[in-house]
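Hi support team,

I'm filing this because I wasn't sure whether my run with magnesium ion finished correctly. The job status page said complete, but I'd like someone to confirm that the output block is well-formed before I use it downstream. Pasting the exact inputs I used:
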Amino acid sequence: MNLRDPAGEDPLSEAERRQIHYWMRLTRTLDDRIISLWKQGRGLGGTFSQRGHEAISVGAGFALGPDDVVAPMHRDLGCYLLRGMTPARLLASQLGRATGVNRGRDANLHGCGDLDLNIIGFVSHLPQSMPVALGAAMAFQYREEPRVAMTFVGDGSSNTGLFHETLNLAAVHEAPLVVIVENNQYAYSTPISQQMAIEDISQRGTAQGVTSEIIDGNDVGAVHGAATVAVERARSGGGPTLIEAKTMRMLGHAIHDGAEYVPADLIDKWRKLDPLERYEQTLRDDGVSDDRAFGAVAARCKAEVASAVRFAEESEWPDPQTVAEGVYAP
Amino acid sequence: MTDGNFGFADQPASTGHQKTYIEAISDGLATEMANDPNVLVLGEDVGGSFGGAFNVTKGLAERFGDRRVLNMPMTELSFIGAANGMALMGLRPVIEVQFADFISTGFDSIVQFAATTHYRWGGSVPWVIRAPSDGGIRSGPFHSQNPEAWFVHTPGLKVVAPSTPADAKGLLISAIRDNNPVIYFESKPLYRSLKGPVPEGEHSVPLGMAAVTRQGTDATVISYGAMVHQALAAAGTLAGEGIDVEVVDLRTLKPLDTATVLESVAKTGRSLVVHAANRLAGIGAEIAAVIAEEAFESLDAPVMRIGGLDTPVPFSPPLEDVYRPDQHGIAEAVRRICSY
Ligand SMILES: Cc1ncc(C[n+]2csc(CCOP(=O)(O)OP(=O)(O)O)c2C)c(N)n1
Ligand SMILES: [Mg+2]
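And here is everything the job wrote out:
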């Protein structure tokens, strides 16, 4: 469904809608496999699940063109995948192998940057990706290139001064920046009610002079529609946009966290709104796809992830002799 | 007046190839902006006809256009963060923090993002932060700091601290051309008090190379920034007493040119490190350790250090004067190491 015009045609072709479904399924499959690997003791360090965030990372990322730049965060596996970072590279990174995106230098999705794919890697300090994406947008402006930068940020991170500073600066410069706020109700164990006194984070964008809106973060059509409008606005000189996507973090903060502090009925409520199941239903209703096709997609994703696991686990470890390499750019 | 220009701004400009230290910085900036359209300046109050709290960027907006000289709100964390993004996209931003003291407000963008990115995933972050640093000019705890040790302790950064007008220009140009984040500590007390010859046009001084500023045989004084001039003054005094002092100006603090330091110490057998930053865990501690490890056999005396006291930088002259190293203390310390 296209939330911009619920009665209207979906602006995406059927093929594009099937692609979006594929990326969401691949994201879910890889995410599930990462969780099971870690539970089997085959992981390395900690890792994050993104379960429940597929519509946001895929829907928003799908609105970008190949020359646009994205600075995702730790729940945005889907965005990495659809930009061309393969499950094999991502898993090898998570397992600390030489074949990983960062050659064993950074953990889980951290530091999975690759400018050939126009992905900027993140640091732990949230929301450091925000001003960096803004700077990329300002560089495009400076060189008069028709490119857009997009970044993602959580509800917890929206409380920082840096969040407000960045929106303010983006508004002053009318920068071609799209900020996706993933309001998943929690920052680690802290519910949103203990983080802020306002109902909607989008107010913070409005306060800084950034066009801001709220969408259903579990409806990929809504996310993609809003992101497309924001990207077009940015590209045509209309300045930055903040999109608050309301969702729920369905598992713990990270793999070690059972999230017993989250009320069960809250999870139950959101489980019924699962973004992947909802999109499959929409595609069925619209006659774009069917269960047989979904089964084929699931099988394909499973096979891709299985081969990625093999690749990662069989990959060599980084050579200890290289530990000091790359601290400085030549 | 808190963020004033300390009465220096009204002094007449120098002419010809003789330039003040601050004019040399402006010259370096303008030279590299003319060379490379990817160089742009950003910071608080740097734009328009104003040109920054110290007027370093004065005239740049008129000459290169407002798009290349961007005023920023007083939000160091986000505008240094934005410079990270610009640099990743191939620009070479030169950031002015109004005073080095305010660099702490941008700390995460520097030490977490900029410093680690190339090591982690290969993104290169070629910016320069110009940080007007140092005291002795009665500016109190928040306009006098020398925070270089924080950054020397951070892998992935480079740190420079010129002591002469020629180096101020040449190191700035090299810093801008370097493909890594470089913090350029410029010395406020030298801004308009120090004049020297500065090559016109193209002039770069390589990063990572110390200079032997004065040749000597009896003791080595290792320093950087404004303290180099105190060391030279002390060397002049000591020459009258028959003590021949060699002065090494580090110029770059990271990467450190330990070879030049060790070569000098091998010759003199005595060494003193001097900086205006507080002594505890400062650059001097590192240099003393390197000398102890690498030049033990040539030492005739313990390696000594002089630095600021382990206090905030005090405001009132009688307090700042005991806080801050000077030529008299340096001369006294050299006499001591020469008495071994
Ligand atoms: C500046 C900073 N402080 C603390 C942390 C540790 N930390 C990692 S994620 C997190 C919660 C983030 O919450 P939110 O922004 O809502 O993102 P979510 O994990 O819910 O997707 C915290 C506290 C951090 N990464 N950065
Ligand atoms: Mg959250």
